[in-house]
From TrEMBL:
One of its GO terms (biological process) is oxaloacetate metabolic process. It comes from Candidatus Marsarchaeota G2 archaeon ECH_B_2. This is CoA ester lyase. It comes from the Archaea. InterPro entries: Aldolase/citrate-lyase_domain, Citrate_lyase_beta/mcl1/mcl2, Pyrv/PenolPyrv_kinase-like_dom, Pyrv_kinase-like_dom_sf. The lineage of its organism: Archaea, Candidatus Marsarchaeota, Candidatus Marsarchaeota group 2. Keywords: Lyase, Magnesium, Metal-binding.
Length: 285
């Protein structure tokens, strides 16, 4: 399996952000149950502390035990000089798996070719939304996510309207599934409202998202729970495969299970559920 294929198959139920200039939070993030950790060099780091954050990440990434967690670095937007300084750093860190690219609105294949790191673009502008399929189809992209706040600003609209926008979720998910990458849902800003977070995660799951960005440790558990197939979902998937195989051996292309007509599309859904269940948590051997 290639490195990129391996990165596509890893779980990203929870993708936790940690400010790149905060040693305590970076160390803590390496010990939490998030599937993926994003060390941030963009919004959470003041301009005057960018270089200090790069030095800190450069020291801590090789020192810490990250286990099976995906280690990512969110660079600064590509129209900023700091992004090139970020890329120079990331290219030297073997333990960094993926580069998270904010405000992505162009193809990113050149970054993959230059660094060898897998890519996770964030779609958070009007132009990025229009070009999302061109962005995710490029070599090196393993997942895509989106940001409601910057998207609202780009449109000159309201955060409430964009946070609950079904069209955006559908468009992101459609581009992701078409090109075989993961769709990760946006940040939920109210870190005390875990019920609201879980409800939004369940809604994203209905659209085909396989994980959620998180900004606080208390959001990790709900994300992992929502995006792990339930026992009922797994039982349904296993029954689908068993019934369909029995029908295939009998020469039928579609079979009935209870009150449901089962055909090839159900088989693909069932296989996806089983694949997600088999990925396991980052702490499992």
């Amino acid at each position: 399996m290639s490195v990129i294929s391996d990165h596509k198959s890893r779980p990203r139920r929870s993708q936790l952000y940690a400010p790149g200039n905060n040693e305590k939070l970076i160390v803590k993030a390496s010990k939490l149950d998030a599937d993926s950790v994003v060390l941030d060099l963009e919004d959470s780091v003041p301009a005057e502390m960018k270089e200090e954050a790069r030095r800190l990440i450069g020291r801590l990434v090789p020192e810490l035990d990250w286990g099976k967690r995906e280690v990512c670095v969110r660079i600064n937007p590509l129209n900023k000089l700091d992004s090139y300084r970020d890329l120079l750093l990331v290219s030297t860190l073997d333990r960094v798996d993926s580069i998270v690219v904010p405000k992505a609105d162009v193809g990113l294949g050149s970054i993959y070719n230059a660094t060898g790191k897998s890519l996770i673009p964030i779609v958070e502008t009007a132009r990025g939304l229009l070009r999302v399929e061109d962005i995710v189809c490029e070599e090196g992209v393993v997942a895509v996510t989106w940001g409601a706040a910057d998207m609202a600003f780009s449109f000159g609209g309201s955060l409430d309207a964009f946070s609950s926008n079904a069209y955006i979720r559908t468009k992101i998910a459609a581009a992701a599934v078409t090109h075989g990458v993961e769709a990760i849902d946006k940040v939920y800003f109210d870190v005390e409202d875990t019920e609201g977070f879980a409800a939004e995660a369940r809604e994203a799951k209905k659209y085909g998202f396989s994980g959620k960005q998180v900004i606080h440790p208390n959001q990790i558990g709900p994300a992992n729970s929502v995006f792990t197939p339930t026992a009922e979902e797994l039982e349904w998937a296993q029954r689908i495969l068993r019934v369909y195989e029995e029908g295939r051996r009998a020469g039928r292309g579609a079979v009935r299970m209870d009150d449901e007509l089962v055909d090839e599309v159900h088989v693909r859904i069932a296989k996806g559920i089983i694949q997600r269940a088999n990925r396991g948590a980052v702490g499992e051997d």
